[in-house]
Amino acid sequence: MVGSQDTHLKMELKKLIVETCRKKVAPETISDDAVILGSDSALGLDSLDVLELSVALKTRFGVRIVDSKDALRVMKSINALADAVQPE
Amino acid sequence: MSNKGVNIIGIGAVSSCGAGVKTLVEHIREGLDSTSLVSISPSIPERFKVSFIPGREEAVKRAKTAEEFIDAVILKAVNEAMIQAEADSKFLKDCALIIGSSGFILEAEIEYRIKNLSPKSLIGEQKGETMPAPLARLGAGHIASRIARRLGINGPVITITTACTSSANAMLAAGGMIERGDIKKAIVIGAEFISAVTVSGFNSLMLLDPGGCKPFDADRRGIQMGEACAAIIMEKKEKTSKDRYSLCGWANLCDTHNVVSSRLNGASAYDVMLKAIKQVGIEPRDVTAIKAHGIATPDNDTAEAGGISLLFDGAAPPFTALKGYIGHTLGACGAIETAAFIGCLDAGFIPRTFGFSEIDPAIGIAPLKTHLDAKRGYYLLNFFGFGGNNTSLVLRYG
Amino acid sequence: MDKRKDPVYILSASAVGPNADATAAERRVLKTDPESCDFQDIVRQLTMHDFRRIGHFSEISVTGSQIAIRRMAHPISPNTGIYFSTGLGEVKKTVSMFEQVLGHEEGLVSPYSFVNSVSSTTSFYVAKAARIESRNITVSQEELSFEIALRLAQTDIEDGTVDCALAGGADELSHPRSEHMRRIKLEDRQIMGEGSGWLCLGKNSRNAIGELLMVKEIPAPECLCRGNGDVLSEWLNVAADAISPWITEHEKTYLLPGFRLDKKHIEGLLNRLPQAEIKNYLKYCGCFHTAAAFGIASVFDQPHSEPALYFHVNSNLYGRTMVVGVRAFPAQP
Q: Which of B46-50, B351-355, C111-115 has the highest mean pLDDT?
């Protein structure tokens, strides 16, 4: 099933983000469609976090993020990220 | 003309162009590409243009100790500078030695590979004990101690590790110590050797351009890794016969905006350049040309160009960047780019920016596309680094 | 004695040990190699900035520098240079980078690890926490790193390059000991340590807690070059000669021996300087390259009722020795 429909996958992604970026946030409080990048966003992740997550995603899920434009597209929200990890 | 500062009386260099300042200047004059295309990691399919010191891959493989390779390169640059300065072992005795490097990770890497590939064949291993090795992180200072001992230097020994501004700050520290009278002379060394770990690190930050760097270009994508070693001998301004080049001003500031990039509006670049020229007592209009840092990442070149535009109020002097010729040599760039620039001035020209072809409309100013005739005057040399560490030096020629 | 320039005063000091101890009451004598403490919560309390990504080494450094700043009687000047020093820098992050890149499965390096291992990163975080954007230098010269950084700070204040200076040193340890001994050679009897020490310096004597008297490299014994003669005796003479001109009748004098001095150095110095007493700080922080920073800063752990002189002496494995002298002022009523 497509990633954004997979509740289990989305929780795994939330835990990965919190752990990787060392945020003091409970994963279950992160909403699936909220913006996660940018200082105004729920998680306030910046470009260095995006890079760290890119490496974590590659290692854990084999998702390859080519450049920063790609990263911004893929990490728009948990739903977008889940779809990139599990397109079907 | 200012009477401040310290004289530069000898320079030596080893870079991707080969050994010697003369070779380096010829490569720059002719616009020769000294890069090699290499694979930087088994997990990264692309190959990257990097500026290796010629013969280094063989030398690194052959070296029984990391020291063998690293010291050979450093001493080559030092010897060339000493010949130009007419310096002998007596000269060195009360000289200071100041090394700038972001660290000698290659040394640890060579040791690591030697240990992992053949743990039983370490030199000096007896009764199952392994020889203590320099480490993965890295008492960077032990290299300076070792080199000082080999050269018979009894003056102060200092290693400065501020990432890409390391050897620029080493020059700044030496200048200050000589001007204050703490020491009469110093050998400043900038040394940096490409390591798999460092290249991997830059790649993980998506800061590399596999095709080589294009400073200030509309199509610039990132850094070209390089390695080099340069030695610059400085002494107190006493004799007038050797004062063709002097380091007459310097400034170092820390921009706390972001650990990997500078303020995009150019304010940090502006601040440090202004402080350096104020120290000399000159105005922006007195600057003949600028040797920019120009690492060719989208953000850093924008920031630097922004600073230049701000400082010179729309009337920027000629500016140029050297990293297309020798790569970004990180901690060594202060010394090697100063040596290269002085070498070019000596040969009669201000070098163009290799790798630049098209102006970026968002920046609005372009570096040199052709060499210019060298002129007597003040030259601003910029070096900006990770951790917001920014340094500008003022070189007086003539 | 050196020609005196305008005095450089010590405006505050902080010494943070391996147990996150920062005051006299918190100091504990180390019986064995300590484990690293978690400084995340401490850093969070000390600074408003988001420092979640920084490594342990940077955490120790930010903690020490922030405590020193908070102990100042007045706000820190914007023209305060930061003179940071470390022998080994961010050991653990660099080791993990090596494992990531050169390990059995040669893989991608973590951007956080890489950025944390860069030599200018820690002094960046120190500056960011302090909101200072002035001169910022990091010295890495093994056992003499802090002394050299302190000397650069002193001379920059003396000639007006900066108004004030935040001079500090920090190092972290790593386990197992056998691995760490490849980085810092210690004797079996020596405990490895970590921590940081900081001095805020300036020209204004108002509210100063002490004075920086001298930072000096003493010449190596000439007989070392000749290859004959009594190296120890010559060393002791030169070291004592550097210290004795400062000693007065009405000030207690203490020696702070660094971790490369052994029993014969220490006893020999005491013989030549009978007025001096030993203050052993290494038992609280363990041995690390910038332990001198901890040692010198820790003399200000408690207010003094009378002025006192402290001389820190340490050598490196290449036979170079540096002496740092400070005077502690009696506490203001």
A: B351-355
B176 pLDDT more than 70: yes
Residue C206, SS3 per DSSP = coil
Task: Tell me: do C51 and C188 sit in the same domain.
Answer: yes
> Is residue C289 one of the residues assigned to a domain?
no
Neighbours of C78 (CB within 10 A): 12
Is the peptide bond between C176 and the residue preceding it cis, with omega within 30 degrees of 0?
yes
Q: Is the pLDDT of residue B355 over 90?
A: yes
CA of A43 vs chain C CAs: smallest distance (Å)? 12
Instruction: Please tell me which chains touch B, using 3 or more CB pairs under 8 Å as the contact test.
Output: A, C
Please check whether residues C182 and C228 belong to one and the same domain.
no
Please report the pLDDT score of residue C91 as a whole number. Answer: 87
Distance CA C125, CA C163 (A): 21
Q: Is the ipTM of this complex over 0.90?
A: yes
pLDDT score of C30 more than 90: yes
Size of interface A-B (CB pairs under 8 A): 9
Q: What would the CATH number be for the domain defined by B7-397? A: 3.40.47.10
> C279 lies in which domain range?
213-283+299-328
Q: Same domain, yes or no, for C50 and C194?
A: yes
- Same structural domain, C122 and C186: yes
Predicted confidence (pLDDT) at residue A74 exceeds the cutoff of 90: no
Instruction: Flag whether C333 is in a domain.
Output: no
Out of B139-143, B154-158, C209-213, which region has the weakest mean confidence (pLDDT)? B139-143
Q: Model confidence at B149, in pLDDT bands (50, 70, 90)?
A: very high
Residue of chain A with shortest Cα separation from C105: A59
Please list every residue in chain A whose beta carbon sits closer than 8 Å to the beta carbon of residue B206: 51, 67-68
> Are residues A48 and B260, on separate chains, in Cβ contact within 8 Å?
yes
Query: Distances from the Cα of A77 to the Cαs of A23, A29, A85, B56, B323, in angstroms?
Result: 16, 14, 12, 46, 38
Q: Are C318 and C248 found together in one domain?
A: yes
Q: Among C256, C266, C251, which residue's Cα sits nearest to residue C309?
A: C251
**Please, which chains are in contact with A (at least 3 CB pairs closer than 8 A)?**
B, C
Contacts of B256 in chain C (CB under 8 A): 124, 127-128, 131-133
Q: How close B372 gets to chain A, by Cα (Å)?
A: 37
CATH code of residue C138 = 3.40.47.10
Is A48 within 8 Å of chain B by CB? yes
